[in-house]
């Protein structure tokens, strides 16, 4: 079994669509692009459609209309979304567009004037109205029974759990707050209730997501409702009591994050933090309009590791940001050497229409950005390889994602699905099934992946 280096673009999630339609049932196709937050939006739309009697298909052929849930994170992602819309129009002809790029309807209709409708992110009712207009529902109450857990676009054993929408940050390179609005947290009791349903339906791992997970509950003034307080630490503790793995994504390093680390040391939540550091040089961070405290961040990381030595840290960075000097970039490389992050991804800076960073002076040539990206990834890969090599000979817990004739593909507690590495079991895997959590001994390490045996 070969290694599978992680895709470093967090805006390239893909949905797995179940196909269980009955003869004559009105059918909607679905293409879900973008991050896991968009995937949750797709699941909610499909759950509503299933409840109204629609069948869901991952194929263009045989669908009465196709929904394309788009990404507008970067210009390259926008181009990919336009390409996906064009493909759906060619293959099916009846296309409804939603998602982040839907916040720019003229941009979409300028390229594809024949789309049936365009709606913005998390505008579920408008999407349903567009579907009703294109393909009227024909529910059969004796057949179209909705599973208690709704429609899932991920494997049965893990699920994304969105705890809030929007973001209060004003990073100059980002337009997501313009597309998705300011922070709106879900009530804690509603999050817990959804998590309980998921675990009851067989989910073994909950992946907590939002635009800014650390800020959860700020807009609610951390109020307590029906026994649950809207604060990340309380929410993590409550989720950890359900018996599933709990993994936290998109956590900004606010001071109160340190309160999560004892929960990780206790085993209530996974010892894993996904933190978007973006850069390390204070001048670059200031031009990004982000907190410029990289040195204190190193102290914070050291404090986290002192409490929970097993903690795995993932982050993404931007290289080639306007005005980034060679000295600033070297500071970033030196910071990586000190921080020793376990999992690292990077973007080359791109202008995004509407972002304030476009107006900054001293944009860098493409060849400089590519050179810095290559050097950055070389450094990150070397760190990953060394940290994984240190795990050889250790016994660790893994969750099984897939089993085929070649072996079992698993993930350690340090690996999120789709974006991190894998652990492969090549022998003695016949009795394993997706969702199993087992202990293995690590035999071999690569640049991103591990190999082990039961």
From TrEMBL:
Residues that coordinate or bind [4Fe-4S] cluster 1: 35, 71, 100
Acetylation as UniProt keyword: no
Keyword Kinase assigned: no
One GO molecular-function entry: protein methylthiotransferase activity
SUPFAM superfamilies attached to this UniProt entry: Radical SAM enzymes (SSF102114)
Residue ranges of coiled coil: none
GO CC terms, sorted: ribosome
Record-linked Pfam families: Radical_SAM, TRAM_2, UPF0004
Binding site for [4Fe-4S] cluster 2: 167, 171, 174
InterPro entries hit by this protein: Elp3/MiaA/NifB-like_rSAM, Methylthiotransferase, Methylthiotransferase_N, Methylthiotransferase_N_sf, NA-bd_OB-fold, Ribosomal_uS12_MeSTrfase_RimO, rSAM, rSAM_horseshoe
Main location, first listed in the record: cytoplasm
Subcellular location: Cytoplasm
Sequence ranges of Basic and acidic residues compositional bias: 8-23
Cofactor(s) the protein needs: [4Fe-4S] cluster
All residue ranges annotated as the Radical SAM core domain in the record: 153-386
Boundaries of every MTTase N-terminal domain copy: 26-136
Details of cofactor binding: Binds 2 [4Fe-4S] clusters. One cluster is coordinated with 3 cysteines and an exchangeable S-adenosyl-L-methionine.
EC number in record: 2.8.4.4
Ranges where the TRAM domain occurs: 389-454
Enzyme kind, highest EC tier: transferase
Region Disordered, annotated ranges: 1-25
Catalytic activity from the UniProt record: L-aspartate(89)-[ribosomal protein uS12]-hydrogen + (sulfur carrier)-SH + AH2 + 2 S-adenosyl-L-methionine = 3-methylsulfanyl-L-aspartate(89)-[ribosomal protein uS12]-hydrogen + (sulfur carrier)-H + 5'-deoxyadenosine + L-methionine + A + S-adenosyl-L-homocysteine + 2 H(+)
Protein family: Belongs to the methylthiotransferase family. RimO subfamily.
Functional summary from the UniProt entry: Catalyzes the methylthiolation of an aspartic acid residue of ribosomal protein uS12.
UniProt protein name: Ribosomal protein uS12 methylthiotransferase RimO
Organism, as annotated: Paracoccus spongiarum
Recorded name of the encoding gene: rimO
């Amino acid at each position: 079994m070969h290694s599978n280096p992680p895709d470093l673009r967090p805006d390239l999630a893909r949905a797995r669509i179940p196909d269980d339609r009955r003869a004559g049932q009105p059918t909607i196709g679905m293409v879900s692009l973008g991050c896991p937050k968009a995937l949750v939006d797709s699941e909610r739309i499909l759950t509503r459609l299933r409840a109204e009697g629609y069948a869901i298909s991952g194929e263009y052929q045989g669908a009465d209309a196709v929904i394309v849930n788009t990404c507008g994170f970067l210009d390259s992602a926008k181009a990919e979304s336009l390409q996906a819309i064009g493909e759906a129009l060619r293959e099916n002809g009846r296309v409804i567009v939603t998602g982040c790029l839907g916040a720019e309807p003229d941009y979409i209709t300028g390229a594809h004037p024949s789309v049936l409708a365009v709606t913005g992110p998390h505008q579920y009712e408008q999407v349903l109205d567009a579907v009703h207009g294109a393909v009227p529902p024909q529910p059969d109450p004796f057949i179209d029974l909705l599973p208690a857990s709704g429609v899932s676009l991920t494997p049965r054993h893990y699920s994304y759990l969105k705890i809030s929408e929007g973001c209060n940050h004003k990073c100059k390179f980002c337009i997501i707050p313009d597309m998705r609005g300011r922070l709106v947290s879900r009530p804690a009791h509603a999050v817990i209730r959804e998590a309980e349903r998921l675990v009851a339906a067989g989910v073994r791992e909950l992946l907590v997501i939002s635009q800014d997970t650390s800020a959860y509950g700020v807009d609610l003034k951390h109020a307590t409702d029906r026994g649950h307080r809207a604060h990340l630490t309380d929410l993590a503790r409550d989720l950890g009591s359900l018996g599933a793995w709990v993994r936290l994504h998109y956590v900004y390093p606010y001071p109160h994050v340190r309160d999560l680390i004892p929960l990780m040391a206790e085993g209530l939540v996974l010892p894993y933090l996904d933190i978007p550091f973006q850069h390390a040089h204070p001048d670059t961070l200031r031009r990004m309009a982000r907190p410029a405290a990289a040195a204190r961040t190193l102290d914070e990381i050291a404090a986290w590791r002192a409490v929970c030595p097993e903690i795995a840290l993932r982050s993404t960075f931007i290289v080639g940001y306007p005005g980034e000097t060679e000295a600033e970039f070297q500071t970033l490389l030196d910071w990586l050497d000190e921080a020793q992050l376990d999992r690292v991804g990077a973007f080359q800076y791109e202008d995004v229409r509407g972002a304030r960073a476009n107006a900054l002076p001293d944009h860098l040539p493409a060849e400089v950005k590519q050179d810095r990206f290559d050097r950055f990834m070389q450094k990150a890969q070397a760190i990953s390889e060394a940290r994984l090599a240190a795990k050889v000979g250790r016994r660790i817990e893994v969750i099984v994602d897939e089993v085929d004739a070649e072996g079992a593909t698993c993930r350690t507690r340090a690996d999120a699905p789709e974006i991190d590495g894998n652990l492969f079991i090549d022998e003695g895997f016949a009795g394993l099934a997706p969702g199993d959590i087992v202990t293995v001994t690590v035999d071999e390490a690569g640049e991103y992946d591990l190999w082990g045996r039961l």
